[in-house]
Amino acid sequence: MTDYANVGTTTPSSGRMLSDMEDVHEDHEQPHPIEEEQEEPEEEEGVMLALDSPQIQAALEACKILVIGAGGLGCEILKNLALTGFKEIHVIDMDTIDLSNLNRQFLFRPKDVGQPKATVAAEFVMQRVPGVKIVPYFGKIQDKDDEYYSQFQIVICGLDSIEARRWINAKLVEMIDEEDPQSLKPLIDGGTEGFKGQARVILPTINSCYECSLDMFNKPTTFPICTIANTPRLPEHCIEWASVLEWPRVWGKDTKYDTDNPEHISWLYRTATERAEKFNISGVTYSLTQGVVKNIIPAIASTNAIIAASCCNEVFKIATGSPYLDNYMMYTGNDGIYTYTFQHQKKPECPVCGQIAASAELDREMSLEDLIESLKERPDVQLKRPSLRTASKSLYMQAPPALEEATRPNLEKKLEDLIEAGEYITVTDVALPVSIQLKVSWKE
Ligand SMILES: [Zn+2]
Q1: Which domain CATH number covers 139?
Q2: Do 196 and 246 belong together in one domain?
Q3: How far apart are alpha carbons 57 and 202 in whole angstroms?
Q4: Which residues in the chain land under pLDDT 70?
Q5: Which end of the chain has fewer CB atoms at under 10 Å, N or C?
């Protein structure tokens, strides 16, 4: 393996091709009649070796890769890596195959429905590509420990879950041992959403990590309630009106619709259609209704293929010591095809890889409950059920129940009655792989 810690972290062109190390001394002509000291031939820049050259083969064989996810991106990634010539690949996925996967997750057949994705994908690729060993694990990434992760040289993710990405990102940062260069595992992360996608190379603690860029990923689209109620312009607004306002009005606040119940979806569809007709809006369909209420983002096979290809190229480049992506490529296929590559910056106050605590300028009159609500709104941390404490006391704890009950009265209290300026608040949350430290100051 090349020492990737020294390669391409500042400019994409600072890495060296494996060909630089190629032995070009063989096969020389007859010795010169006059004895002359043979000079070393100049290293040739930019010469690429054939994929089946012994040097490339050795580099690929020496590289054990972990693929996380065996779904839309994962099938593509496993196929690409195996066909590139990597010999040992492990794959983790906790899902089983669903009928609706078959249109794009091409390693699966109707007979495989209900089977674990990781196992079926591994067997399929091993049958088609002789000489590759794929070790599946049907379960969660959280089941595995540091020892397991430390056996790999590169980790590549094709996931649709932000939570799993946050977890593996934090795990790889946590595993860094500054004394041991082998502890640095490059993380190649691919993601797609409809016609959009991104591929990125994360070198834990060296460049921007997944957590550093969390604010780039928006929460699922939501529409302002006033637009839904008063000035709908899109079919989605009418569907939201039916599901958010009309359903509870007609069926009561406590009766939640079931997104898997066709009668409920039909009711929402009819109600949204009436609304749309009133405002001259077209485009409300049954499947759009289902898509909006279930928050379904269509998965598109070609986007997966493009992003997986890009990710696998980066794996290949890192494995063979070539210059690689620094560090973020986004792909937009909505209107034509557009890609943009940039260097996403590390966030100094990143809770996972940063060095400094984030500061929070707070209104001293604000209640603790409002602070918790405002934390949930922040796109850079994306919390679900935050618990807050200071060095000396628990401010509000979501669990266990006894502690929740004991700290609940604090929710109504003003911040100035609970915390002092300069104190640190520690925030923990189910969605957070680590805790966040907030240094408190008061707004003037
Ligand atoms: Zn970070």
Answers
A1: 3.40.50.720
A2: no
A3: 25
A4: 1-46, 217-221
A5: C
Which member of 63, 226, 238, 353 is catalytic?
Answer: 226
Whether residue 121 is contained in a domain is answered as yes
Cβ neighbours for 186, distance < 8 A, ≥ 6 positions apart: 4, 154, 155, 201, 202, 203, 318
Cα(69) to ligand 1 centroid in Å equals 22
Amino acid at 226: C
| 186, 240, 306, 315 from 203: Cα distances, Å | 5, 41, 22, 12
Q: Are strands 133-138 and 88-93 parallel, antiparallel or unpaired?
A: parallel
Contact criterion met (CB below 8 Å) for 83 and 130: no
pTM value > 0.85: no
Query: Rounded to the nearest whole angstrom, what is the distance from the C-alpha of residue 171 to the centroid of ligand 1?
Result: 12
Q: For this structure, is 226 an active site residue?
A: yes
Ligand 1 centroid vs 382 CA: distance in angstroms? 14
